[in-house]
Amino acid sequence: MKKKESTQVCPLCGGHKQPGRTTFSADIGEGVVVVRNVKATICSQCGEEWIDNPTAQELETVVADARQKRLQVEVTTF
Ligand SMILES: [Zn+2]
Question: pTM score, two decimals?
Answer without folding.
Answer: 0.78
